[in-house]
Amino acid sequence: MQTIFVQVKCELGEAYSVADKAVETVEQVSEVHSTSGEHDLLIKCYLDDATDIGHFVTERIQRLPGVKDTFTLITFKAFS
Length: 80
Hints:
This protein is of the alpha+beta class and 80 residues long. It has helices at residues 15-25, 53-61; strands at 2-10, 29-34, 41-47, 67-74.
């Protein structure tokens, strides 16, 4: 299992609809948080090991209506 975080810039006024659409339509999305600063949303996703991260982000996240730009963080190890 791979964990990635995708920071999303949304079109003006679209952050809430992008967040709702991500949760409703992308099964790999675990959590969506609104953020302040350069990006509007932080999306946490769990992907199967065989999933190509680049294809997932470009086909499932960047194509959500209202998404303007993304920045993907790939994780290595979770600490608790």
